[in-house]
Protein 1
Amino acid sequence: MYYQCVKLRQIIIAVYLSISLDGVADSSGPYLASGIKIGEVDQTSAIVWVRLTHEKRAHFDKLPILTKGLKRNEKDAESMPEGVARGMAGEVRVGYVATNEKRAFAWTDWTQVLAENDFTHQFKLADLKSGASYSCIVQVRGVGSDKLSSTTNGSFKTAPKKTQPVPIRFIVTTCQSVRSIDSGAQGHVAYKTMLELDPHFFVHTGDILYYDKAPLCKNIKQARAKWNLIFAYEHNMNFHRQVSSYFMKDDHDTLKNDCWPGQTYGDLTFDQGLKIFREQVPMGKKTYRTIRWGKHVQIWLTEHRDFRTSNRVEDGPEKTILGMEQKAWLMRTMKQSDATHKFLIVPGPIVGPDKRGKNDNHSNKGFSNEGQQLRNFLAKQKNTYVICGDRHWQYCSKDPQTGVLEMGCGPVNDQHMFGGAPKADKTYHRFFGKKGGFLAVTVVDGKAKAEWMSADVKGNTGKPEIRYTELLGSR
């Protein structure tokens, strides 16, 4: 019945869009070549991100790598071409309604986008119903025009109240790039696969793109151009207009590999990287946050770049990745939570083990003091698990000292295996695979399981291969 209601709402929206454009379409733009993103959803609010463009579709022909990617170990030092999806001045508004409600769409005011924000705008939708499915419409017109030039529809789910024992499924992935696209102008096929699972929400743990991997981004214009492109791919765009998402950042989508405050990459500064990230994804006041999804699920998303100490500083009690304020917040809110299952989602590993030569995360020697502090704390929290991004392989490991369970979701596909991986370690690994895809977590009747999946579907089943399943709650 639920899916019938959703389908009916989609038909109604399609009819509405065709009527609203009939005879009044403005073919001069602006358009939505970079798609929309819906994120930061909680029980009563959501953010809809939009960007207006000159063209209906990105210029994927600007550079061969934009649709062909790179072969393993192939070198390509070309710079990111500007103008792959040029921004354009215009006005935009969002209409939204709960899928099962027989009422008119509520509308935001028409808002003009600004060049200083790369022609983006983020609409905060408030006073929403908890545990509900919502449909939305984004309408675009030229400045001062009364004719629509572009429109698209989307959907998302709001979080249930903390007392509701409802089933929840969410998906986590990490590390995607232009150089590892696997389906040309359609982008990353994982997004098509993930959408078929109809998740309640999605988390990207960072390295959403790579400034320091071909094509290179060493100034603000090039950095913005790569953001404009990465969500213009068909699969990527289609997914993010239909799923509630939470975006986290790591080193490569802040500045460069293993970066910290005060550094530069070409003409791009660390502070500019922070600004661009918040500009290009839906984001609230803080980049670290916790969200409750019903009685059985609560997630924590931590920030690992903004407050960190230089990697070069000698390790000790003062050396930190989280910063004192964020760490105190994390420990306080976790202790206060009565959720059945608690998931700490982090950009980089806390347990590991990592590959040789790394010194940038809590599983490395360079941050061993804070890493041990976190593992000791997490071990005392009931049914608490770490979900880790950044690493280019999928794994499930259990710290032999504290028993903390860490689940590495792996990169968006098998093509993103560049950079190497460690060998399986029986003292840690319950599962170890040198492949990419995503992690799906499902909680039903208070029982949780994690499934490591491939990006591609298996045979003619239409479903992804499940590489490993871990039943949670037995630690």
Protein 2
Amino acid sequence: MLNEEIVDPTILENARRTVGDFHHLIDSGLINKDGEFFPSLMYPTMMQYPPMKAEGFLDGYVPHEDSSCVYVHFPFCMMRCAFCHFPNVLGSTEGDKDVYLDHLEKEMDISMSRFGVSRVKARSILLGGGTPTFISPAQMKRFFNFFTARMDMTAMTQFSCDTSPFFLLGYEGRERLKIMRDAGVRRLAIGVQAFSDPILKKMARHHNTADSLRAISMAKEMGFKVNLELICGYPGETPELWVDMVRQALRCEVDEIIIYRLKILPMGVHTGAIYSLFDSRGNPLITNDEQIRLKAVAIGLLEQNGYHETMSRFFSKTPADYSYYMSDWMGGQHDNLGFGLYSMTMLRDRFSQNTPDLKEYYAAIESGKMPIKTGAIRTRDQQLRRNISMPLKNMHLLKKQFRDITGADPGAVFGKKIQLLKDHGLLQEDAEYLKLTKLGRFFADEIAQFFCHPDLLPFKKDKYKDGPLNPYVGYETEA
């Protein structure tokens, strides 16, 4: 167990209080009775999209700005990580990846034609997956050639790429880094996940701790902003080991560190292996109390070393070092164009998600269609809830932005809910902003769900206590 010889006593005391706050919020009804975690990445959540036909998606669409966030999905992975809930493609050959790139290029042209643009004016770009760097250097050059030719990047603020440490190593890794740098990528989110070889093995990761340290060093050497990702609460992470891993992350002196709470419940069309542990008796999962304690200890260590939370779960020393892409579409509510298998396009008044099935994806593109599987044109109710929950989850809500998008004042629509959160020390307000308090940021996902319509909540009504913050109580908008 952690003691004052291992961690500063003020950090331990704060972690103890945070566990107490966790139970208070369960009793208040904000968090489900079991304390289970479900991330609020968008509204509605990923499991709740109705079928959408590509032909009707853009009917009546009127652009409201001249630039967009851009996301490109690469579905390929060497193996499936035990914690992953996404429908990625495993064991693919170079030829398989060439076929995917063929269709990705065609999809971009089909979508851009439907939007009536010859080039996309990008404000921020993210390459995600899967593993975007799990293609050869030659294929990476090919991708950037056709991708950047279709982008207007004159006003772009940040170009990011997610990656695994493994694909930044050796000669090919250095080549990938050079190619990305030449194409304009400046920020790398490196999925370290753990600094422990036994834990990495349990996660079914294909790299070890030494690989991570070499990859981080090489990325920094070549001038990239480096974001380092750690999963909090993975089975086998003892408190002492977790502290060691956070301190190792601090020793790397990267620009940004993300602390992810382990996602056990599936978020989409695939269920990760981690869920089978949760679903069996006598499983070795860490308790929710311990996950909260470990997360609080990590935040204390980060703050003690000069890192501060810039966005929910993102910690950096410099306020400007965070994911502009995440902030743009989640906080700023800017349009996001998604390309690739299972990618999402999120516009101000509608959203769509491409099919997760590779054969369906290829067939749609070969037929000249956008490969849309699900989505919807948002109702008025969905617009109001999305435009308060996502900015609050991300960083803060700018009241003027809410008024400009919805035509309403947030206090007139959600005044009772806002006051309840303020009364419980989770939210603060001034003339311009609604901002989560430090305690509110810790439970940002649950606060975002507090504004959900009951039909779109991840947990049923009987899973919550009948407290004042029960999301099923008083859910109606007030205007």
Protein 3
Amino acid sequence: MNFFRLLKQAARLWFHKGAEQYAAALAYFTPFALAPLLLISITLVGVLIGRADVIALLLRWGEFIDPALPAFMTTSLANFEVLTTSYMLPVFALLFFSIMILFALNSLSGSLQKLWDVESFGLKNLFWRSGRAILFVLLFQVYLVVAIMSNNFFSTIHTATGSILFPILSQAVFFVATMLLVAIGYGLLPLSAPSFKARLYGAAVATTLFLFSRTLVSLHVVTSPSPDIYGAAGLVFVLLIWVYISACVLYFGASFAKVYELQSKQRLTK
């Protein structure tokens, strides 16, 4: 019952702080940052594992949301690579899109600080958050390496043995890796955060809701005529929905971490 009470308190905090508006702001910046972030991931992780494995994983994630989304992602990456290899465009293109990645992550970190009542103003704090955003991008590369290596490992064993246990183990590793990414991200991006235990519980809630919401978005795509009506613009519409819902879920997990931290402090004072 205590868990459900925490969920209720987290929902109340989420609504009170206007987290849906923070999610909308993050959904605005993310499409601009997505292509360069994917290209950076393909380049960095591709050196360690191989571009083909990285691209295959990213396209598989996109296909789970919308079967047409991988083609859209591939076209976006190809266009971005053309831009960054044209005369005089590399500097401007890389600078612009790198700034968009920082804007997106700064929007996320700033919203987390508002949810957690962390005061931060001025350029100095903005620079500190930007530095933390760069560290989070590097952390995301580690996450991709773990996801790809575990997926390849369990896929190889599953092919050799035919046991259904290994796909389940692969999903379990993916869940734990995602949960740790979110928990560390909660602590890394903002200038101040709840304890790691509180963030871990919040990340567990966020990851569970994230996987569930991903299924709901896929169901919406199947039943909604938007992609068929608007064509490529419909894919952008689907992407915005997915990013917005994912952002709402991240902020709900952060709200859960906040109320859990408050409850833990109240227990210590009794």
Protein 4
Amino acid sequence: MEEFKSGFVAILGRTNVGKSTLLNLLVGEKVAATANKVQTTRTAIRGIVNRENSQIIFIDTPGIHKPKTKLNETMIETSFGVINDIDIILFVIEATSEEIGRGDMKILEKIKESHKKAILIINKIDLVKREKLLQLIDIYQKEYNFEAVIPVSSLKEKYKDVILDEIEKNLKPGPAYYNVEEYTDQTMRQLAEETIREKALKYLQDEVPHGIYVEVEKMKFRKNQKNEEMYDIEATIYCLRNSHKGIIIGKNGEMLKKIGRAARIDMEENFGVKVNLKTWVKVKEDWQEDSSIVKKFELK
């Protein structure tokens, strides 16, 4: 019988390169918010993959970007802070790059300093021709001795086992750190907050989403009159300005209803029970500089 292996794997990359989508694909459950907007992930989220001979714990990190607020600084510290404690790095870049940009170089320098095993994932390969892809691979391989280079289009299921097999090959023998039924160490409250925020990111205009955070104030389990299990969830979406509040609520409350409806459907699917969701919107102008709130996004 093969020896059981386990280890921690960090997914690093610039904002919006597809890290969260990749995490969700590998874990097979929705643990990270996915939206086509930068800075979607704010904390290091762990996704757990249990295989026959291994347990792989993924840490999805906030994308590397230029910090403008205390929140941004915390997010970047979180990303680079995980490197010391992991076994393998999945470095995600975009196939459309012609050279190593500033953000990618910053990450590459951190990888070099760490001397950790690293696998290069080149995402969005459907957007470039083969010759360009080969040139990009060549540029990166001259910079670091990657264990493997895997070109992917991260939304496709067929890449899942290719990546997981490569990770497993590079893990050391070790115990299962988590129960095999678990796929994330996030609490249901955190997953609820993350789901609502993801839907807000999906439906709102560009300038609003990154000025919001979601707080679940009540999460109560009960049985309804039909004896069905359900959660009553009450959540507040905080935003930076009054004008943003109007956009989030929308005409006749339509936008807020749309966000709430989409979040509820997702949660019911994820939690396996009915959800009764109520959402409110409040303005909190300086929350991105508020230490008590920013602390939530630090690596635990």
